[in-house]
Amino acid sequence: QVQLVESGGGLVQPGGSLRLSCAASGFTFTSYYMSWYRQAPGKERELVARISNLALTTNYADSVKGRFTISRDNGKNTVYLQMNSLKPEDTAVYYCHVRMIPNDYWGQGTQVTVSS
Questions:
Q1: Which of 32, 29, 9 is nearest to 94 (CA)?
Q2: Does residue 88 have a cis peptide bond before it, meaning omega lies within 30 degrees of 0?
Q3: What is the pLDDT of residue 51?
Q4: How far apart are the C-alpha atoms of 88 and 53, rounded to whole Å?
Q5: pLDDT tens-digit profile of 57-68?
Q6: Which terminus of the chain, N or C, has less C-beta within 10 A?
Q7: How are beta strands 110-114 and 10-12 bridged, if at all?
Q8: 35 - beta bridge partners?
Q9: First-to-last CA distance in the chain?
């Protein structure tokens, strides 16, 4: 079965960095785009970044452009989100996502808190 397991969240001061990882299993990783979403308290889940199956294209939310970088290692079935220059408004639960029409699969989420 499809499994997505995130790691790397935590508490960081404004301006700091974190690297999230998502280990995927149960499907042919190289066939699918992978995404990171986030959900802050009281807000809807939003797309943060997406990467194509062979990492040829990436897309970012305007709020994270220039600060976050999505990447993937197809040999390790893992997708990453490097987050730099973190702001308090980046505080959220971050989720790894894959869409296999008609289904969407999500990881359990990892908490990122940006606070001094």
A1: 9
A2: no
A3: 98
A4: 31
A5: 999 999 999 999
A6: N
A7: parallel
A8: 50, 97
A9: 40
